Amino acid sequence: MTGGEVALDGRPILRGVDLTVRDGEFLVVLGANGSGKSTLIRTLLGLVPLSGGSVQLYGTPPGKFRDWGRIGYVPQRLSVGGGVPATVREVVSSGRIARRRRFRRTAAEDRRAVADALDAVGLAGRAGYPVQALSGGQQQRVLIARALAGEPDAFVMDEPTAGVDADSQRLLADTLAGLRERGKTVVLVAHELGPLEPLITRAIVLREGRIAYDGAPPAAAEAGVDTAGHVHAHAHAHTGVLNGWPDVIGSRAAAAEAGATGEA
Ligand SMILES: Nc1ncnc2c1ncn2[C@@H]1O[C@H](COP(=O)(O)OP(=O)(O)OP(=O)(O)O)[C@@H](O)[C@H]1O
Known about the structure:
Layout: E1 2-8, E2 11-17, E3 26-31, H1 37-44, E4 52-54, E5 71-74, H2 88-93, H3 107-120, H4 136-149, E6 154-158, H5 166-181, E7 185-189, E8 202-207, E9 210-215, H6 218-222, H7 231-238, H8 251-263
Helix pairs in contact: 3-4
């Protein structure tokens, strides 16, 4: 995204956002309630129109992008269209649809991918249940499984840990660790990092629709450690790449802010 601007109901929600997500990054989007985190990732996916600037997905504007099988989106909430009853397996299987454009695939491969995804989120025993019968946390896991089933290159997740109990959070962290090992790209919005923290290679902090920090994840920043991979991102925050944002945001301020949002 370059110079991304979004206005909703005439109110500026994103302002001058420059963000390039690199392959293999594990990027967390932090910020207070209403700072624009969901809007940012929805705009990156072309779900919210820009009022200024531009977005590209793998080099193509969202309106012309056809390779949706490369991206697995986990929205904040499950919305199964029109209240039509669907089972857990059906929702997770729908994650395979976008792959048709990319790969020849067989029914056996589809079944395996869906079963693996259900296993990964601990819902194998619930495959035949109507999703509406599940708790909020379990529905969240169904959405994660749907994205996993698609075997995309990049995952974009809006608060995957919201309303999920501690055991499920650890399960998710294990799953995400596996994705990271396999070189997948992960962008996720989070309030609490919890067990995800060690996986993060880069953090951005949104404040009133602007990127107020972009660099090392909070714990590493606090310790003054720049681990491999986010040196560049860190340097960006200090060399004024973030257009128009005063170049005063140090690691400690960001770590403090990230800590504050963690409590929100
Ligand atoms: N469809 C919409 N129309 C008008 N305003 C909206 C719309 N969606 C979001 N907003 C406003 O945009 C601002 C940013 O919302 P957004 O959901 O992106 O924030 P967030 O950082 O993800 O917040 P949270 O942590 O609460 O999910 C909020 O003030 C919200 O009220």
